[in-house]
Amino acid sequence: MATIRQKHRRSKLKSARDRAAEFERGRQRLDRKRKERDIKTHWAHFWDVCPKCGGDMFEQASLGIPYEVCRTCHGIYIDRAEVMLAATHLDPARWLRAVLQRSKKPRRA
Questions:
Q1: Within a 13 Å sphere around the CA of 7, how many CA atoms are in the beta-carbon half?
Q2: Sheet of 65-70: strands edge to edge?
Q3: What does the DSSP 8-state code read for residue 107?
Q4: 7-34 pLDDT, tens per residue?
């Protein structure tokens, strides 16, 4: 016949086992989510990720010249080719004002 202390020890052991199993299930769930996220982001090109905050970037165009804008921090990324195109074909100051004006409230794509 088991004493009260022995029953209490068994219940503690059982709950410790349950906690360990629950922890393991949670860890496996997080590992699956991380793996899914890594698979999704593996195919993203480096220019689709903001160099400042790591957020998602989308492409916008002002006066026909494309550039990238971050959805999170609203940072603007302009490639060298885009700057050269603006400098040779447009008034750079006018184009930059248009970029800054349009990038204040980025559209959701």
A1: 4
A2: 57-62, 65-70, 76-77
A3: P
A4: 666 656 667 788 888 889 988 998 888 8
